Amino acid sequence: MHLKILLVLVAVLLSGCSYIPTLPYKIDIQQGNVVTEEMVEKLKPGMSRSQVRFVLGTPLITDVFHADRWDYFYYFAPRGSVSEKRKLTVIFDGDQLSHIEGDFTLSPASDDLLPITPSLDENRQPFIEEQEDDLKPNITAPVNPL
């Protein structure tokens, strides 16, 4: 009887040592600026650049060609599940905050906040309008033989 209990106990202990998880450990990946909806709700029209930087932090992208635009991007991928991507664009008029664009939703209780316009991807227009005549090759020019 004691021999059977001892053999079962040894078998359980040995099987516990041979357990190897089949999935590798995955870490949470967080990149960009962490911008919460509470931070966006603190933005008011007419705020200065330093006030916006105090509320949101330093922007991820400050474009040399668009000095009145700051872009905040956020990417979060928790351990093997669906990733979260957010974008917030802050537009200034001079040194004053004009409006913001992005994919944040504001609470209905906030009345005096900036309106969030939808992201530019929905209404994107081509930068250079192609004309059909430009795409056709010019075959009327004479060819010089060598």
Task: Please provide a written account of the structure.
This protein has 146 residues and is of the alpha+beta class. It has helices at 2-17, 37-41, 49-56, 132-135; strands at residues 29-32, 61-62, 69-77, 84-93, 96-102, 116-117. Strands 1, 2, 3, 4, 5 and 6 form a 6-stranded mixed sheet that branches. The chain is rod-shaped and about 90 Å long.
Percentage of residues in DSSP E strands:
15-25%
Number of helices: 4
Mean pLDDT: 75
Uncertain parts: 118-133
Distance between the termini: 104 Å
Total DSSP E strands: 6
Q: Whole-number radius of gyration?
A: 29 Å
Present the secondary structure layout.
Blueprint: H1 2-17, E1 29-32, H2 37-41, H3 49-56, E2 61-62, E3 69-77, E4 84-93, E5 96-102, E6 116-117, H4 132-135
Key attributes of the depicted protein:
146 residues, alpha+beta, six-stranded mixed sheet
Summarize the structure.
With 146 residues, this protein is of the alpha+beta class.
